[in-house]
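Anyone up for a design puzzle?
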């Protein structure tokens, strides 16, 4: 059931010690691997391995690992241990000898091995072979969580609960290959702790730091231990949409929650809009894991309502690849190479240099994956210097790999990039994509063939949100493809032709405005980009006509507000002057209204005429004065559009006209509540407004008292109106103990090229 022969000697030894602790209930002392005197582990005391069987004294644990599938242990495999057993027994250190092996042990051989060990001085002998070890793994969910590689080395349909497996089969099966290579790190332990404590965890780190790997380990553990249905989503705003109130064990996984390679503000706005429901979901037992690149999250923080959802800070795990220990780096490299596509000859030639590679300052988990794939090492000379360059210049070498591909393979990558890293399968071309493929020197058939050839190396076929899609194997490959566009104006022109406007506006900037990883459209292509934007009138994100139209307009405004230079904006206004009138009259919910961002941007560039500026100031002031939206008081961007005198007058009117009538604002909001909307969600804007007023008028004792009273009454109304919540029992994965420290001199890579007999 489990391919334990693929673990490697070190991982198998760690598995045995974990079994001793978790299953046998014994905390063992591990010994030096190169000078263990016949002991991989030991403990002392009394132990009942089975009902009616009591053993006491000094126990010895010895692990025998075979990298050969189906290997049968024989007396000759332990011959070298017998003199060590005699010595241990003579010193009173071997009352009970426990032999653990992933090899099979026949009845006849077990009797022979037992006799040999007893004859060498052990008083009692216990032999646990592959059948017994697999039985412990099968019956112990916590053991599997502590050694998550097991999920990738077994049949998930047999490991997981039938219902949990059926609900998330495609997602979980797509993880299997990568799970076979995972390593327990300190970041994983912190993530488990955060998920247990809060039900929510945000994993942050640089590209290729291992965020998705940790999220996949949590997802598999949740499906296994809690029988959770696992939903992997691309948009954090869709969490609420997919929530089933009658299924408290749902596990939501949102990879790259705020953008894959660049910050995407619509994703943040969707999340902000769902915060009240998300809090309710967590209270009722749902679990949520989100990941984000560090630079994207740092940009997203400017727009995220962290005060309304403190868990973004409290349940945040920052993954720093520089914090990986020596043994973790080596085990990551070992697992990828051992289970990768490289032949034994490559592994054998590389073995002397692997500790150096793992210790390199620029080593990251993605480095291990590339070394294990022949596509990335075709031209690599296996010496310490050249392997060091492979690690040091990882971005440049990836770029060279992409540039060295044939035309159809490049076109296949381009098609995925044009679809924003989500190419539906089976592949059907849309819009101008046939023309773009033709200019790239390929056809749909050739592209599909190339995707198949690249699968597992540069691209991956997977299921997400109930769709089969082609994606980049890792987002860094999308980064590298974007770099090829920057080097080739002709290729960029083809990309602009083939991409839909909806995808394009989240990948490019018009002029260099400092958006990291974005493709910069040069001035010569401004007119065609402007025309594309003005033609964009319907968004695919919405089904109804008016929402589709609204979504397209909002997307354009956000693009203009955050991704365009002054020169491009001036050109766009010249061609669409009516946009000035539209941004001057923003609607309510100013924190998410795109017209606000664009008005602020235009004003900053001196492109917002005075009449339009005054109209904007009057609109946002009015919303605050009548108590409907306080965003103008707290937003520094909106404040910049006011003159000093206008803002002082505005604040005074809030003091004189709004503060005396706060009770009416609260009661009006309560009276408008509809039964199908959660009370806390309905009152979220009111509470945020009161919080803003409290901070702004903190020096006014009378105002503070009135604000505190209304806040208390609003929360009291929520408590009284909130329907009783179902009782949900606590669900926790449990603490993950640190791995045994490496204290020996035997290299982890000692058996990297071995496909044969017992080794340890």
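Challenge accepted. My sequence:
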């Amino acid at each position: 059931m489990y391919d334990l022969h693929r673990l490697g000697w070190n991982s198998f030894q760690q598995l045995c010690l974990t079994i001793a602790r978790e299953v046998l209930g014994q905390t063992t002392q591990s010994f030096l691997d190169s000078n263990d005197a016949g002991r991989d582990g030991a403990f002392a005391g009394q132990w009942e391995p089975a009902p009616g069987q009591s053993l006491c004294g000094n126990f010895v644990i010895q692990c025998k690992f075979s990298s050969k599938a189906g290997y049968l242990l024989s007396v000759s495999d332990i011959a070298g241990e017998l003199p060590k057993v005699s010595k241990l027994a003579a010193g009173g250190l071997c009352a009970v000898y426990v032999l653990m092996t992933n090899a099979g042990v026949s009845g006849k051989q077990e009797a022979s091995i037992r006799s040999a060990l007893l004859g060498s001085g052990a008083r009692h002998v216990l032999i646990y072979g592959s059948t017994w070890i697999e039985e412990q793994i099968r019956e112990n969910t916590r053991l599997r969580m502590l050694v998550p590689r097991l999920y990738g080395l077994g049949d998930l349909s047999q490991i997981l609960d039938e219902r949990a497996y059926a609900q998330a089969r495609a997602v979980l099966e797509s993880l299997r290959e990568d799970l076979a290579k995972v390593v327990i790190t300190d970041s994983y332990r912190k993530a488990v702790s955060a998920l247990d404590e809060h039900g929510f965890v945000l994993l942050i780190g640089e590209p290729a730091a291992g965020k998705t790997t940790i999220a996949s380990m949590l997802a598999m553990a949740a499906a296994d231990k809690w029988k959770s249905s696992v939903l992997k989503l691309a948009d954090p705003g869709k969490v609420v949409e997919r929530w089933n109130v009658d299924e408290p064990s749902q596990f939501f996984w949102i990879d790259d929650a705020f953008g894959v390679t660049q910050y995407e503000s619509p994703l943040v706005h969707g999340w902000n809009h769902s915060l009240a429901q998300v809090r309710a979901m967590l209270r009722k037992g749902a679990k949520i894991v989100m990941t984000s690149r560090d630079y994207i999250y740092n940009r997203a923080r400017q727009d995220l309502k962290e005060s309304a959802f403190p868990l973004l800070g409290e349940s945040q795990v920052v993954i720093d690849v520089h914090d990986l220990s020596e043994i973790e780096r080596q085990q990551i490299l070992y697992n990828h190479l051992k289970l990768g596509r490289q032949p034994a000859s490559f592994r054998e030639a590389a073995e002397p240099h692997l500790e150096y590679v793992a210790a390199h300052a620029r080593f990251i988990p993605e480095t291990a994956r590339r070394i294990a794939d022949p596509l990335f090492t075709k031209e690599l000379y296996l010496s310490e210097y050249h392997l060091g360059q492979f690690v040091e210049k990882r971005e440049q070498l990836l770029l060279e790999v992409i540039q060295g591909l044939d035309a159809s393979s490049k076109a296949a990558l381009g098609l995925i990039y044009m679809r924003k890293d989500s190419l539906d399968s089976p592949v059907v071309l849309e819009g101008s994509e046939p023309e773009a493929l033709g200019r790239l020197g390929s056809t749909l058939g050739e592209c599909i063939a190339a995707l198949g050839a690249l699968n597992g190396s540069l691209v991956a076929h997977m299921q997400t949100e109930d769709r089969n899609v082609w994606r980049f194997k890792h987002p860094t490959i999308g980064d590298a493809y974007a770099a090829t566009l920057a080097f080739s104006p002709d290729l960029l022109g083809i990309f602009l032709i083939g991409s839909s406007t909806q995808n394009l506006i989240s990948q490019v900037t018009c002029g260099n405005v400092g958006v990291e990883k974005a493709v910069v459209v040069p001035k010569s292509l401004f007119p065609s980009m402007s025309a594309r934007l003005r033609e964009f009138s319907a968004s695919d994100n919405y089904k109804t006509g008016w929402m589709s139209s609204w979504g397209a307009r909002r997307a354009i405004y956000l693009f203009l507000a955050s991704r365009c230079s002054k020169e491009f904006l001036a050109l766009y206004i010249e061609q669409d002057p009516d946009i000035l009138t539209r941004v001057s009259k923003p609607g309510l919910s100013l924190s998410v209204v795109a017209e606000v961002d664009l008005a602020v941007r235009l004003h900053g560039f001196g492109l917002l005429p005075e009449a339009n500026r005054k109209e904007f100031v009057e609109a946002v002031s009015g919303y605050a004065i009548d108590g409907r939206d306080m965003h103008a008081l707290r937003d520094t961007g909106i404040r910049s559009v006011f003159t000093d005198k206008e803002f002082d007058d505005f604040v005074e009117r809030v003091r004189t006209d709004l503060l005396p009538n706060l009770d009416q604002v609260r009661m009006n909001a309560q009276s408008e509540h509809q039964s199908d909307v959660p009370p806390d969600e309905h009152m979220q804007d009111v509470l945020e407004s009161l919080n803003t007023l409290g901070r702004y008028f903190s020096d006014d004792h009378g105002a503070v008292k009135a604000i505190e009273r209304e806040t208390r009454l609003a929360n009291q109304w929520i408590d009284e109106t909130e329907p009783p919540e179902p009782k949900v029992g606590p669900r926790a994965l449990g603490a993950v103990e640190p791995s045994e420290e490496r204290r020996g001199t035997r290299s982890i890579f000692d058996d990297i090229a071995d496909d044969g007999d017992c080794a340890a």
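A detail worth pointing out: The CA atoms of residues 252 and 288 lie 5 Å apart.
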